[in-house]
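Predict the 3D structure for this chain.
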Amino acid sequence: MDIEIKDNWKGILQKEFDKPYYKELISFVKEDYKNRICYPKDSDIFAAFDNCSFEDIKVVILGQDPYHGEGQANGLCFSVYDGVAHPPSLKNIFKEIEIDLGTEYPTSGDLSKWAKQGVLLLNATLTVRAGMAGSHQKKGWEQFTDAVISKISEDKENVVFLLWGGYAKKKGAKIDKKKHHVLTSGHPSPLSANRGYWFGNKHFSKTNNFLQSKELPTILW
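Done. Predicted structure below.
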């Protein structure tokens, strides 16, 4: 099993890869993938990075854990493989896009089309055991993804960060708000959305309005 990030991120994150915690993390992940069913498949662990180069980042969406059901997680937060039924949070994301932009509800839940336009779809934890939510938390992934967020905040400007729910807001605490545009709301999960904390946030039109104001290409959501 080879867990490697693609070339365009390698140099940017090399210091992180050399740290003892990261080596321990990868050792744990390899062992767990060998002995248990884990998601996403090993070739998709770094899909968020593989589909969106550092140079191209315009938007960052922060998730927490990969989906832990069979055939769902594809390495991009909130996303599923083409043809897979849309999980509740993804349904609510698509419903908000319908309301916000007046577009049709999409058939595919694969968000790689967003990633290829410069949306980094980053989970805080990049792997999980089947059927066991949070099972790979506190093994080192959070430290790694914190470093990714810090690197983006430090080295880029005018990135839109979409922080949905309390966990994402805490995760994004170190973002330099003078350099970047941060939008927050409740989480798109039914529990939060049905209490009025998600629908109507208009994050998708607000993102495009900001990008337009900086003369950057907008996202086709």
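The chain has a mean pLDDT of 96.
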